[in-house]
Structure formats: structure tokens, C-alpha cells
Amino acid sequence: MTITDLSDVATLLQRMVQIDSVSGSVCGRDRSEQPLIDMLHRQAKDWGLHPTLLPVPGHADQLIITARPPVEGDTRPLLLFDSHTDTVGVEGMTVEPFAAEVRDGKMYGRGTCDTKGTGAAMLCALRQYAETEVQPVRVAVLFSVDEEMSMDGIQHFLTHDYEAVVGDAASVNVIVGEPSDLRLYVVHNGVLTWKLSTSGVAAHSSRPSNGVSAITPMLTLLQAVEALYIPSVTACHGLTGTAACAVTMIKGGHSPNVIADHCEATIDRRLSAGDVSETPELATAALRKVSACLKRCLGDAAGTPEGISFCTHARTSTSPCPS
Ligand SMILES: [Zn+2]
Q: How far away, in angstroms, is 86 Cα from ligand 1 center?
């Protein structure tokens, strides 16, 4: 790549950082990434590329860009690049988040590194590739949305758009532009978030016997998870280390003088790659066993007949990527 091309990347990156695309789940704005997606869509068109918007319910559109329109029967291998357009929030930043200021050869601003930098580089590289006469590989750049919070975008892509994008390609390789200190990673752990909830009966705290606390059975449940489930999480991968599990959040009650009728806890589970037992389904089944056993033991102490409910938030999970 020439110096001119690098300055193209920097210019595009600056324009991308200057567009606020803090994740809608953080900033509360619906489709907060759409202005950035629209700018990239226009840019790709101006460069003679073939951009296609891929709607995602409840979020901004995703954008896939190829050098040329897809052709049926195109069996060339597909090289798919992915970069997400949302960023985390701007709280606590010590630089102006959307100025994209360049100092000493470095750009500063929210999302510069994660992942607008790779997105700008991928799009500029695609532009260059599109101008070459011989293209042995079909290349596509995907700008996915809401990666930082729910990963709704990439999951929607996999279930609704992936097959059409792959088409008749003989093989598919994917490069994800996450920050990695410029090192190449070929494997990663998966993440799965569980929510446990318990319910009770609300009452004024001056008459505790009129109510049933939802907090008490939750404490017992979490102790059981700590004692019976977490020690069983031992799978290990040579490159990513051991699987992990931790209770990360708890929330219960809504007033100091009311017996809590609802309590909720969040458990974060990191699934190890390369182990057949480390799937979201099997991990969830193992945790359910602990929960079901405890539910039987607690009986009426859990308050209402359905005192302990258990649900997993599969939407926030990713499976491990094997090496
Ligand atoms: Zn990222």
C-alpha cells in the first residue's frame, strides 16, 4: 500500500470517528449507528463499489460491500471482513470523543481503535482490490451493528443474511477487525450470559411476616452456583486458557421499607474453545441441574409456586471459535 492510500485510510477514519455511533443500548437513541452506516454506504457508491443495506429489527441497518454485484454460480472462495460500527459510551474520556484529533501521528477519539480503524482500512483495501484485473477471491466487507452490547447485528446476519452472502463460494474465511495489538488471533472463547430470577411477595417491612423475600432464595441459589457449578468449569484450551464463570450482577427490591418481591442475578460464562462439552446448550443444562435441585430443596421457602425462575439470555452469547 502506498503512502497516498494510507492517507485515504486516515481521512476516512477521521470522518467515521467524527460521527457519534455510541451503541443505542448505551445512549438510548434508536438506530444510533445509522448516520455512520449511511455515510459508508454513500462512500462505497462514490468509489464504484457495490453496497447493500441489510436491515436488523430494532437497530440500524448493517452494510455489506463487495467489489461487484454477486453473480450466481460464482464459486470463488469468499474472504469476508467484519468490523462493527457501534462504540461504547464516552463517559470518563479525557479527549474530545468525536474530534478525531491527530497528535504525533496518532488519532484520538471514541471508536478509533475499536473498530473504526479496521473498518476504514478494510474499505480502502476493498476499493484497491476492486481496481485489480484479476480477482481470484471474492471479497466482502461487512459493517455490523450493536456488537458492544447485544451482538444482535452479527447474530441476525448469521441467521438471515449469511447464506445469501456466501452464495456458491467454495469456501469462506472470515477476518474480524477487533483490536489485538496487531497480532493475529485464530481462536477465541465464547461468552454466554445467564439471568437468574427469584420472586416473592411484597409487604411493608414493618410486617415482614406478611411477605416473602425474593432476595433470600437468591442468596442460597448463588451460594449453590458458587459451590456446585463454578468448580466444575475446568475446560482449558492451549491458546485461550481456561473456561470461566462468575456472578457479576445482583439486583433486588425497590424500596428500603418493602420486602423485595423480585431479585435478579447475572452470571457471565466464558466457554472454552476446542472442547465438545463447552457449548451454550450443554453449559446451560449443567447450570439448570443446580437450579432445579435447589428449587426442590427450597420448596415453599421460595415464595410463590414458581419462586425460582431461570432463564438464559442466548442472544448475548457467542460460541467458541475453534482453532
Ligand atoms: Zn470491538
A: 8
* ω into 115 cis (within 30 of 0): yes
Q: Scan for cell 476493498, then name that residue.
A: 126
Question: What is the residue-level pLDDT of the chain in tens, covering all 323 positions?
Answer: 554 567 899 999 999 999 999 999 899 898 999 999 999 999 999 999 999 999 999 999 999 999 999 899 999 999 999 999 999 999 999 999 999 999 999 999 999 999 999 999 999 999 999 999 999 999 999 999 999 988 899 999 999 999 999 999 999 999 999 998 888 888 888 888 888 888 889 999 999 999 989 998 889 889 989 999 999 999 999 888 899 999 999 999 999 999 999 999 999 999 998 788 888 888 888 888 887 777 776 664 444 444 555 554 433 445 666 54
Domains, the chain, with CATH or none? 3-176 (3.40.630.10), 190-318 (3.30.70.360)
Cα(181) to centroid(ligand 1), Å: 13
Q: Sign of the CA dihedral 33, 35, 37, 39?
A: negative
**Ligand 1 center–CA 88 separation, angstroms:** 9
Distance 115 CA to ligand 1 centre (A): 5
* DSSP tag of 301: G
Give the Cα separation of 301 and 289 in Å (integer): 19
pTM strictly above 0.85: no
Element (H, E) at 143: strand 138-144
Task: Quote the ligand 1 centre to 205 CA distance (angstroms).
Answer: 45
Give, as one character, the DSSP assignment of residue 201: B
Asked if 262 contacts 211 with a C-beta cutoff of 8 angstroms, the reply is no
| Ligand 1 geometric centre to CA of 295 (Å) | 38
